[in-house]
Amino acid sequence: MTEITFRPMQKADVPRVAELERLCFRSPWSEKSLAGELKNRIARYRVGLVGQKVEAYAGMWLLYEEAHITNVAVSPEQRRRGFGRALMLEMMRTALLDGACQMTLEVRESNLTAQALYHGLGFEAAGRRKRYYADTGEDALIMWNRDIPKSLAALDTNHQSKGDQP
Fold it and tell me: Catalytic annotation on 132?
């Protein structure tokens, strides 16, 4: 499997992150909005690198003990390689280091692949936002992980028991 490494998003990454937004989403965030997140003191954005190229990224806002995932994207060419899972684990660990013990996100009702990923990371559906996505009028499921430390410990234990590295 190709290796992916993570680091905080930098100003120079914004054009590529905006490109990923356009490739991955019907209603992408603008380059200006993404650049603004670098100045947002509650925002944390991480990029995933394959070699030197940004192939994935995620963002979140930290509000007290809660982290709210704002964006998660993996380039279409790099999908189905475990990068989405690795990216979400990176975000969960980052949130925990910043004092958050819970995490929430919205996901399209029709995006069963993402829902399965989040469920496998300890998230549970906890509500619905009617007509959340303006482009289609589709509902969003609200998903929560109410105990990030417990989920990470369980996931690390599962990997070690399978002989994988955490």
Answer: no
Nearest-CA neighbor of 141 among 152, 154, 132, 128? 128
E strands within the chain?
A: 5-8, 43-50, 53-63, 66-74, 102-108, 124-133, 138-145
CATH of 5-161, one of 2.30.29.170, 3.90.10.10, 3.40.630.30, 1.10.3720.10: 3.40.630.30
Mean per-residue pLDDT, 10-23: 96
Identified catalytic residue from 118, 124, 133, 138: 118
Q: What is the pTM of this model?
A: 0.89
> Residue 163: is its pLDDT beyond 50?
no
Q: Is 106 a catalytic residue?
A: yes
Of the residues 37, 55, 66, 106, only one is catalytic, namely: 106
